Amino acid sequence: MTGTTRRTFLSLAGAALAGAGAAGCSMIEGDDKSTGSGPAKIDRPLNKTRTLVTYFSVPETDDPNNMTEDEENSTHVVGGKVLGNTQHVAQIIEKRTGAEVFRIETAEGLPLDHGTLEDLALEQQEANERPKLKASIPNLEEYDTVFVGYPIWWYDLPMPVYTFLEQHDFTGKNIILFSTHGGNRLGETVGVITDKLPESTVISNAFTISRDDMENAEAEVSDWLDSLG
Amino acid sequence: MLHKLLFWGFAVVFPLPLVFTYDFVATVPPSLKFYIFLGLIAYAWWLLSIALSVRPSWLDRFVGLPSIYGLHGMLGVLAIALAYVHSDYSYSPSQLARDLGDWAFYGALGVLCYSVFFLSGWLVDRSKLLLRAKGLLETVFRHRFTVWIHRINLVVVGMIWLHAHLLVRVNQYFAFMTLFDLYTVTVLAIYTWKKWIAPDTFLRGSIMINDALGESTRRVCVDLDSKAATLRPGDFFFLSFEGSPSVSGEWHPFSVTDDNQKTLTFTIRQHGDFTRRLDRVEVGTRVRLEGPFGRFESIVQNRDREAPLVLIGMGAGVSALLSLAAAHHTSREIHLLWAVRSPEDAYFRDVLKEYEAATGSRLRATVNVGRFRREDLVGILPAEVIAKGAFFIVGPNLAVLANQRMLRRIGVSARRIHQERLTM
Ligand SMILES: Cc1cc2nc3c(=O)[nH]c(=O)nc-3n(C[C@H](O)[C@H](O)[C@H](O)COP(=O)(O)OP(=O)(O)OC[C@H]3O[C@@H](n4cnc5c(N)ncnc54)[C@H](O)[C@@H]3O)c2cc1C
Ligand SMILES: Cc1cc2nc3c(=O)[nH]c(=O)nc-3n(C[C@H](O)[C@H](O)[C@H](O)COP(=O)(O)O)c2cc1C
């Protein structure tokens, strides 16, 4: 069963349940978009020359043909090109804002086999590792606003994103978060990042989208960007 | 009331050991924990629901079979709601675990919808149209088939069990998994015991009489091998006829019509697939009886000790009431109201006359062709009886509910109305 049908079916089933009077699903509905304690909006309009979009993303294949279910889950194909889900969201933001983009990459290549990648990610998380990055942002001082995008890995930020956050000085900057996930929304990542960057303004209105809803990404990202002011 | 509170309270407490143990041992992010809790509660409720389906006799005496099945159904609904939130908000790294979780959810949802319609009465008891639709559909979806569909829930539980065992964030905690398996194994053992071992301990007997009463009703007397020592007036049994070429061995509930612990008499209206074949069941056929079940006598004894009894029966529904009348007509004021379809169906008219004569009219019986209407009730029952009586209604669901509403309208408080519906 593809992710899309699963989610659609689940939504239908959920609606049916609500209809049958078995309410109770809505209590957590609100945490889709915003958690954390920062302001929901940025205090001035985005200036594209002083905005940077950074993201971490691991598409598990670059071949758009004959994908396994795991590969399909981790990618989104646009015009025959295979993108990671988070990468796709980053590109939409780039297109909409005209901002520069920086991709967070580990120094050592990551395994593309899903199971191996999961095991490695879990190991790194349990050992609280900080995997080395391929490069740092050379000109961070030129930006006021930094978008940070990441997939949820094991209910948390991927460890390379921890390295990234700790390796740069985001003092005084607006930080806007976006994320893609396989079920558990943002988890506690907004709170984690807000705590990690006490000298920055982390906008509470973070964006998240399920990997099963990637075909709606354009519209959802646009709405979200509009809501940021 | 207290019994029911305790009973429902138990359902609330039942998942807690699982939840607390997981909370204690697992070091996972709180948001994940929360959604795992929801999954655990749903699973525990499915298990409890299965445990309730074995309808232990002692629990029936404690809260009554309708409450048992009521909770059984409610837990099914609540568990689905929790499972939905759990499934929508959690991530499972294993594809197989995810698929199992999804299939289990769809399976449980499908079975739930099916059962709400065919088994629960939540819908069909409230609409004549739906009841007719159910009647039509049951020519294909027979009760037996429905019971098998319902058993898909066991497969659902198996899938969720495996689902949990595949998840790293769950299966790495040995103490928790042990408890999780203990819950599962205990409930499945109870279920297995009930289906395959317990029937050997049920009462058994042979059919002594099987003859016609009125137009489409039969009297079936079963001579028990040993006395039904715990039998009380108003009780019913689930009967299974063994080795009869005419009817299958499936279990059907019927009330005991008189007050005799050795020879049980059943009054059975023939209207469906199973009951219509009963006239071909031979004398001497062996019968297994699960039970007795029922709360009428304990209500008469404990709750409404002094009150006059008002017994309202529709058709064969009068049988449970007759055994109450048989037991109490010498000591209590009783008004027995019996609605029948046609004058020929009033097959107990003579028995009732005898009771009336024997009690000097302390028992008063009124037989009506067609339903009792409000003015009938007000005419038959003295004001004092309406104000103080304990009312017992037995019959088809729609008729029971209609009578209940009518009684409420003439001023009988809900607390004094007790009922048994002839479908479950
Ligand atoms: C507590 C109780 C006491 C009853 N006492 C009597 C009685 O004294 N005399 C009497 O004539 N009838 C009694 N009934 C009703 C009787 O059990 C059903 O009429 C009979 O089982 C119908 O079987 P059928 O296949 O002939 O009819 P169908 O037309 O196939 O079924 C009619 C309805 O009966 C219900 N039903 C069918 N099979 C079963 C089953 N195996 N278990 C439970 N419900 C079933 C279903 O809701 C169905 O819609 C009682 C029912 C209950 C719940
Ligand atoms: C190692 C790994 C761990 C993951 N853990 C989670 C998780 O805990 N919760 C979740 O919702 N999704 C999880 N996912 C799914 C990803 O968040 C989802 O597929 C995301 O869209 C991938 O983004 P990308 O294609 O940009 O890498 C995980 C994926 C991987 C590869």
From TrEMBL, chain A:
Organism placement in taxonomy: Bacteria, Bacillati, Actinomycetota, Actinomycetes, Kitasatosporales
UniProt keyword annotations, A-Z: Signal
A Pfam cross-reference name: Flavodoxin_4
Record's signal peptide: 1-22
Entry-linked NCBIfam families: PRK06934.1 (NF005389)
GO MF terms, alphabetically ordered: FMN binding
Name assigned to this protein: Flavodoxin-like domain-containing protein
Annotated ranges, domain Flavodoxin-like: 84-205
SUPFAM superfamilies hit by this protein: Flavoproteins
TrEMBL record, chain B:
Keywords for the protein's UniProt record, in alphabetical order: 2Fe-2S, FAD, Flavoprotein, Iron, Iron-sulfur, Membrane, Metal-binding, Oxidoreductase, Transmembrane, Transmembrane helix
Residue ranges of every copy of the FAD-binding FR-type domain listed in the record: 180-299
Protein's name in the database: Ferric reductase
Molecular function terms, GO-annotated: 2 iron, 2 sulfur cluster binding; flavin adenine dinucleotide binding; metal ion binding; oxidoreductase activity
Signal sequence residues: none
Keyword RNA-binding on entry: no
Lineage: Bacteria, Bacillati, Actinomycetota, Actinomycetes, Kitasatosporales
Membrane-spanning residues: 31-50, 62-83, 103-124, 145-167, 173-193, 309-328, 377-400
Cofactor (UniProt): FAD
Key word Transmembrane present: yes
